[in-house]
Design brief:
four-stranded antiparallel sheet; 49% helix; Jelly Rolls; 196 residues
Length: 196
């Protein structure tokens, strides 16, 4: 098996049963790409033509607010899928941009390949539904956190979910993800370190 595709095969196998024959057929249609740190792989206002699987590295999903400021929505870590799914499925311009925070290796699954996968994989449509559910949960959790949790609760959730995030991402992106200022984040870090 292609070493670059081993991780995505394992993750897909956690969602559905997939035979070697099905996998070989599907894998022959997907491609991998090396993305240098800070590169943009999806620009706002362009159509998202691929679902990205993070094989290695880290991606940041963000949008530009009405003041022209970048707002980080999500971080996609190794062994996760990410895309602007509305843009991907409706073939409309994206509201988000996606940027590599580190040198990153991605697996790209195009819209046509995904549709092909639905047909050739015995459980292809189930895979699509489960991935869509996961993304819905991410969006739901993010929305609820903004409206129902304090900045401190959001900070603790972040550090639990992304254990070494502060070593991998500049602090202003983390503050944006938490929907607080960089100064507020510094205070939270300082206070939690004192209480540790």
């Amino acid at each position: 098996m292609n070493e670059n595709l081993r991780s995505i095969h394992k993750v897909i196998s956690n969602y559905i049963v997939i035979s070697d024959e099905e996998w070989d057929c599907f894998a022959s249609k997907i491609r991998t790409q090396e993305i240098p740190k800070k590169s943009i792989i999806l620009n706002k206002e362009t159509i998202c033509r691929d679902v990205f699987f993070v094989n290695k590295g880290l991606l940041r999903v963000y949008f530009i607010d009405s003041n022209g400021d970048e707002k980080t929505f999500h971080f996609a870590l190794k062994n996760t899928f990410i895309a602007d799914y509305e843009s991907f499925f409706k073939r409309i311009p994206s509201n988000y941009s996606i940027q590599a925070m580190e040198d990153t290796t991605i697996v790209l699954v195009s819209h046509d390949v995904l549709q092909h996968g639905y047909k050739i994989l015995r459980n292809g449509e189930r895979l699509g539904r489960l991935l869509a559910e996961d993304y819905l949960f991410i969006c739901n959790d993010k929305l609820q956190a903004i409206y129902t949790q304090t900045p401190l609760q959001r900070y603790y959730n972040l550090t639990n979910e992304f254990s070494n995030i502060f070593q991998r991402i500049p602090q202003h992106y983390i503050a944006s993800y938490l929907n607080i200022s960089s100064v507020h984040l510094s205070r939270l870090k300082s206070n939690t370190n004192k209480n540790a």
